[in-house]
Amino acid sequence: MSVHTGQKPFACELCGQRFIRKYHLGTHMRVHTGEKPFTCELCGQRFIRKDILGIHMRVHTGQKPCACELCGQRFSQKITLNRHMRVHTGQKPFVCELCEKRFRVKSSLNIHMRVHTGQKPFACELCEKRFSLKSSLNCHMRVHTGQKPCACELCGQRYSDKSSLNCHMRVHTGQKPFACELCGQRFSRKTHLTTHMKLHTGEKPFACELCGQRFTQKGNLDTHMRVHTGERHFACELCGQRFSRKTHLNTHMTVHTGQKLFVCELCGKRFTRKGHVDTHMTVHTGQKPFACKLCGQRFTRKGHLDRHMRVHTGQKPFACELCGQQFSHKTSLNSHVRVHTGQKPFVCELCGKRFTRKGHLDTHMRVHTGQKPFACELCGQRFTQKGNLDTHVRVHTGQKSLACELCGQRFSHKTSLDTHIRVHTGQKSFACGLCGQRFSHTTTLNRHMRVHTGQNK
């Protein structure tokens, strides 16, 4: 009758739990005594109740008598089926008392509590780093073993964990599931969105201890510190030039490979960097948003304006360590250093001629292509270099901007001035290879050679 009345007359003297039947009390006492009279004959595991042993045997037999009526998935235990049903019902009965987050199973709540307690019970035996999840420790161990079991089926690239592979797959699918609620920009990773949000909030939590400059990301601060230390980890295997950033090295490699991935949609010109395309577009739009406050000259890029300001200030912050010569631009210093080293990293693939500057190589290539992009607006004559066009225009204008400091005579060409200077200095740079007589002009030497060849004047 106690089944109908709910009466539980048998109480445990140790914990106070009550039972309907004395047999149930006797079975319960094994919890306190540790007695496990029922043994699995296959693996030796022991149990306090025969029915628990029966359920355990399904591990060996593979029997799954409990089936989900909604999806057909089968389970070995009724309690496991009940937990599974919450996937369909959405029921999450286990609630965190600190943040009210809800979970389907008690074990998930227990793991979640480590977020609040900071508990990390799983430690790496090699580096002692600790983790809150056993699965996180297992993934971490692949750092030491180098194991990358997760492979991309499209490109073959391998990863140490499934989550990294899933992020990588968005490269192929173009999926960007994380959207900024303020500007709508989308990202393939949650961490990228978190970093992006700092642009709106202005948050820069990472500060340089040496100069106070602040950054939104720890990685940016680490990279910035190389400005102070002068550290350059990344070396080019072809020419030895070193860089403080991997991205700078990757960009530099295009100098050797000639690879230009970014194309202007209007004129087809190709570039090694995306930023160069954006800057190039101002050639088509004519936009020059950066103006000099002193002379009004306008520029397409902020960097060009900053360099231009040194014309007014006379500042030359870049000094050659070998000869002390000062330069207003870092690129000018780099090019100058090659005078000392003799390095010529830019090679013409057609004739093998080498150059100290990329611009010189580009100009040289017009010798092979016959390209003459600079045209005189007055007579139509075309030139391979802008400087040659500027010199030519003086033929039409009559401008003679170069003056001899000794006699005041003026010239339109630098070469003409240099030749004239020899009148004052008496310098005779051109020698006859047959008799050794010297001349101040190459034309005079050519005339002299007719004495030896017998050619009529």
UniProtKB/TrEMBL annotation:
GO terms for molecular function: DNA-binding transcription factor activity, RNA polymerase II-specific; identical protein binding; RNA polymerase II cis-regulatory region sequence-specific DNA binding; zinc ion binding. This is C2H2-type domain-containing protein. The keyword Zinc-finger applies. Its main location: nucleus. It is found in: Nucleus. Coiled coil: none annotated. Residues 10-37, 38-65, 66-93, 94-121, 122-149, 150-177, 178-205, 206-233, 234-261, 262-289, 290-317, 318-345, 346-373, 374-401, 402-429, 430-457 form the C2H2-type domain. The keyword Repeat applies.
